[in-house]
Amino acid sequence: MQIIVNGEPADIREGSTVAELLEHLRIGRDRVAVEVGLEIVPKASYDSHTLSEGDRIEIVHFVGGGENRAGL
Questions:
Q1: Which of 4, 20, 21, 62 gives 31 a disulfide partner, CB atoms 3.0 to 4.6 angstroms apart?
Q2: Are 54 and 3 in contact (CB under 8 A)?
Q3: Dist. CA 57–CA 8, nearest whole Å
Q4: For residue 50, which of 19, 23, 26, 22 has the smallest C-alpha distance?
């Protein structure tokens, strides 16, 4: 079936879950947020939230940062 991931079409197996999509895309669960159809999917639901034909998914990666304070 076809879905849209971050604005790009993607083909996945029918009945795939958010967790399976992340695995297929080789994206770890720890530092991402997933939105399906404008609704945030709680991490606890990644294994049970089933995707449907035409779903629009946005995956946001959280990036750590901070100041480089070496030498201070």
A1: 62
A2: yes
A3: 9
A4: 19
Give the pairing type, strands 2-5 and 56-61. Answer: parallel
Q: For the beta carbon of residue 52, count every other beta carbon within 10 angstroms.
A: 12
Per-residue pLDDT, 61: 87
DSSP letter at 20 equals H
**What gap in Å lies between CA 72 and CA 59, rounded to an integer?**
37
Check residue 30 and give its pLDDT: 87
Cα separation of 24 and 40, whole Å? 20
Q: Tens digits of per-residue pLDDT, 4-47? A: 999 999 999 999 999 999 999 999 998 899 999 999 999 999 99
